[in-house]
Design a protein that fits this description.
Elements lengths: L40 H9 L2 H12 L16 H4 L2 H13 L9 E3 H8 L3 H13 L3 E5 L2 E4 L5 H14 L2 H16 L6 H10 L8 E3 L17 H15 L4 E3 H8 L10 H20 L3 E8 L2 E8 L20 E2 L25 E3 L11 H9 L15 H17 L10 H15 L37 E6 L6 E6 L1 H4 L17 H4 L6 H11 L1 H7 L4 H18 L3 H14 L2 H10 L6 E3 H5 L3 H13 L20 H7 L5 E2 L4 E2 L9 H13 L5 H13 L4 H4 L4 H5 L8 H26 L12 H6 L9 H6 L18 E4 L1
Antiparallel strand pairs: 1-3, 2-3, 4-11, 5-7, 6-7, 6-15, 8-14, 9-12, 10-11, 13-14
The chain binds a DNA duplex (15 and 15 nucleotides) through α3, α6 and α12.
Length: 811
DNA sequence: CATTCCCGCCACCGG
DNA sequence: CCGGTGGCGGGAATG
């Protein structure tokens, strides 16, 4: 009995059209005339056309009661629910901004006005804007104002989201859920154990964080408001699901489960679930209006369930522009990030108790604080002398340039307006094309080319970029982004913030569609392949579900090529060493646990191997104490793993970015082909004998989150092999310390840099490659096919999912 | 009855 | 203390 039902039935308070315009709604009489405003208006028309009859019928009904008014003709009609739908509303909204070619003004959005024009309550506007914001199609400027960006950043955003999704292991999570379902159905109730085990393992839902783009990160301090709450975040996650799943179809049910912690028992949360679904519908409606997804029905054994299919642009891992180099990946930039020490967290949306169990590992991070203020200043001075070096990335500039420029710029390009007709093809093209084709806003000074475009695909690491300027309290993590070297920031939930990590892109192995493995048939494999072809060989590796061999081959190729441009591994190593020196030893161990390149949470259990409990406690503490000056500082290099350098190399974790420090090495080298990773995983279970390096890899993977610890590695032993710290206790501390120390650390680091660390490592290094080729290494992937057959739970590496017939019906 | 999802109360929160 | 935000869930409209 939460909120009582005070629900008064007065629903029609009405701004109703029928009545006279009270306040002069702008659109006073305008009922009938379709909105003139947009050229694209047609779309909406069509849409609305959807169910005319119903509406009409409805109308009459409505009129009857109290009428009197009908004096006039207009049939303004009553609304009919459909006409008021969010989707339609969203279309109207989009129409407004979408099509305007040059009008700069159009780029500003004033909620009130729009609400009025569209005649809807303000509340609804928030729904729309929030999801648009999650895609970075708009950003909030100030109180009632937003700026329209259109699809400019869409491609980047999607890439980022995809990456994030991969890091979150969404693919696996989905799998898991499906599996669970399956068990339920069939298996009577067979193994409960399994379930439990699973639950432990999995769930890492992580975070609640909001992924941001560099250019628009600002939210002025003041302006920035509520911590990101769900809708925004939920929307991003939802999108991530599409991007990572192979048939790009996501059912509401699954999405809801994932978005919820999913960890908890199900029963009780019926209501929670329901609410989640409701929200998803809201989001879905908006996304549909954007033509990013479309509703379909998935028919599985158990009946058909509502689902959505991604119709947006394919996300390509990256792009091209071989121009890069310039900025060579490496950059050292002083970043400062502030973590808000205090937590501002009040409540979390996702109440998962489990949360605590997870340790955060953010992708890159940074936590420093301080400089932030500078940044602000900088803003004022465009040409500020600050040399943020950021060499590579040019994005910095833009950043401070600030919104103004952006705005202006943005205003200009809006294209998009893809009219419905051409749809898909167009869509795909447009998305992509637009992105690339369209120059950034002129206003923004874009220093040279974008960062190099790694020819590799997504899998590759990207050059790290500059760091983002920080902002206020929210702690952000930056993700280096692929092309363009743009960095993205992720806002972490405050509580999690303290943990720092290094991000190494290399880790992002993509889980890759394991369709084969799972046994799920991808309906559209054809489609995929087509796409792939289309795109050119370039990106395919990542996505193609193709057969292992092929994929592999490609992967290999890629890596090679990539190697050229890659980073200088040696340097990286050196740096690392340096760091190590600096840092005190004790931490080292933990560090390994705590920080690892992937972002997001990893269950401590995994990390520690067993001693999760302790970890928990620490974690909590960490949160609380946020910053106390610690005496110890050591290095924050925390990210460094205790593993020896050589080992690291072996593992291919070469590039460590020490974000906190601001020293970033470009990861480059890595390019671990997704396929490989996959296979590797599989193989792991299978073969017990692994060479050290492999174990290392395993370890790494687990930590990273690629592999759920429990699942993949059959025996814990693996962990043991790893040279990691043997001390159990340390783990805990690390996070805490890290946090505390960051500031110091960063300083130290900087100092170091000044002194002797090579700043611009440019030479390419041959490193990574070798790793891959190493015999015994991951390459050996035999396994893909091997496992698929058995469905037993045993093979943990892969979840076996019964093949179900999946039919997608269009609607 | 089931699926969709509109509506708007009301808790927050920054100013 | 106010007004913008936006979680949230009842329950109406639709299917």
């Amino acid at each position: 009995a939460p909120r009582s039902a005070a629900r008064t039935p007065l629903k029609q308070a009405d701004p109703q059209p029928g009545c006279q315009p009270l306040a002069t709604p702008p659109r006073a009489g305008g009922g009938p005339p379709a909105e003139p405003w947009t050229p694209t208006a047609n779309l909406k028309v069509l849409i609305s056309a959807a169910s005319p009859e119903i509406r009409s019928r409805e109308q009459r009904r409505g009129l009857r009661p109290q009428e009197q008014l009908s004096g006039d003709e207009d049939e303004k009609a009553q609304p009919s629910r459909k006409e008021k739908s969010l989707g339609l509303l969203c279309h109207k909204f989009l129409a407004r901004y979408t099509a305007c070619p040059g009008a700069a003004e159009s780029s500003y959005i004033c909620l009130d006005e729009v609400a009025e024009e569209l005649n809807v309550e303000r509340r609804r506007m928030y729904d729309i804007v929030n999801v648009l914001e999650s895609l970075h199609m708009v950003s909030r400027l100030a109180k009632n104002k937003y700026i329209w960006h259109g699809r400019h950043n869409l491609a980047k955003t999607l890439q980022t989201l995809k990456k994030a999704g991969e890091q979150n292991k969404y693919t696996q999570q989905i799998q898991m859920i499906k599996k669970r379902e399956y068990e339920h159905e069939f298996d009577l109730d067979g193994e409960r154990n399994e379930e439990e085990a699973r639950s432990l393992v999995s769930n890492e839902h992580s975070e609640m964080c909001f992924v941001e783009l560099p250019g628009m990160e600002f939210r002025a301090a003041s302006v920035n408001s509520r911590k990101d709450k769900s809708l925004r975040v939920m929307s991003q996650k939802f999108v991530m699901l599409f991007l990572v799943s192979t048939p790009q179809i996501v059912s509401l049910e699954v999405a809801a489960k994932i978005l919820i912690g999913e960890d908890q028992l199900e029963d009780l949360d019926k209501s929670r679930f329901k609410t989640k679904i409701r929200r998803l519908y809201d989001i879905a409606n908006v996304l549909s209006s954007l033509e990013l997804i479309k509703k379909v029905h998935v028919t599985e054994d158990r009946g058909r369930k509502p689902a959505f299919k991604w119709t947006g642009p394919e996300v390509l891992p990256n792009t091209q522009d071989p121009k890069l180099e310039t900025t060579s990946a490496t950059c050292i930039s002083p970043i400062s990030e502030s973590i808000s020490s205090r937590e501002q967290c009040s409540k979390n949306l996702f109440p998962s108790r489990v949360k605590q169990d997870f340790t955060r590992h953010p992708s890159l991070i940074k936590l420093v604080k301080s400089i932030e203020s500078d940044r602000r200043k900088i803003q004022s001075a465009p040409t500020s002398p600050v040399k943020i070096s950021t060499t590579g990335t040019k994005q910095n500039l833009p950043v401070y340039t600030s919104k103004m420029s952006q705005l202006a710029a943005v205003a200009q390009h809006q294209l998009e307006g893809t009219p419905k007709t051409a749809k898909e093809m167009k869509m795909a093209l447009s998305g992509y094309a637009l992105e690339h084709t369209v120059p950034l806003p002129e206003a923004v000074p874009r220093p040279h080319a974008q960062a190099a475009a790694p020819s590799l695909k997504a899998a590759l690491p990207q050059p790290l970029g500059a760091l983002p300027r920080s902002h206020g309290s929210a702690s952000r993590v930056i993700l280096p982004h692929a092309h363009s070297g743009v960095s993205y920031a992720i806002y972490l939930h405050p509580s999690q913030a303290h943990t720092v990590t290094m991000y190494s892109p290399s880790f992002m192995l993509q889980p890759l569609p394991c369709a084969n493995v799972t046994g799920i048939k991808s309906i559209n494999s054809k489609v995929l392949s087509e796409i792939t072809n289309k795109e050119g060989d370039r990106h395919l590796a990542a996505d193609g579900p193709g057969k292992a061999p092929t994929a592999k081959e490609r992967a290999v190729v890629k890596s090679e090529s990539s190697s050229e441009r890659c980073l200088k591994r040696p340097q990286a190593i050196q740096e690392i060493n340096l760091i190590k020196k600096c840092r005190s030893d004790e931490e080292s161990l933990d560090a390994s646990v705590t920080f690892f390149p992937s972002g997001y949470f990893i269950p401590l259990t995994q990390c520690t191997h067993h001693g999760s409990k302790a970890g928990l406690s620490n974690k909590e503490k960490a949160g609380m104490c946020s910053l106390q000056p610690t005496t110890a500082y050591t290095s924050p290099a925390a990210g460094v793993i205790p593993v020896t350098a050589s080992e690291l190399e072996a593992v291919n974790i070469p590039a460590l970015h020490i974000t906190s420090l601001n020293i970033m090495l470009s990861p480059t080298s890595i390019a671990a082909p997704p396929v490989l990773s996959n296979s590797y995983l599989n193989s792991s279970n299978t073969s017990s004998a692994q060479n050290p390096s492999s174990s290392c890899l395993n370890f790494t993977l687990q930590h990273v989150g690629l592999m759920p610890a429990g699942m993949q590695v059959p025996a814990n032993p693996v962990l043991q092999h790893v040279p990691i710290s043997s001390k159990p206790g340390n783990v805990n501390c690390s996070s805490e310390n890290t946090n505390l120390q960051e500031e110091k650390v960063s300083k130290n680091i900087l100092q170091l840099l000044d002194h002797g660390v090579p700043k611009e490592p440019q030479e390419p290094q041959p490193t990574t490659e070798s790793f891959f080729r190493t015999p015994g290494g991951p390459n050996t992937a035999s396994s893909l096919s091997a496992n698929s057959g058995g469905n037993d739970r045993v093979s943990q590496g892969t979840l076996y999912i019964p093949q179900r017939k999946l039919e997608v019906s269009e609607d």
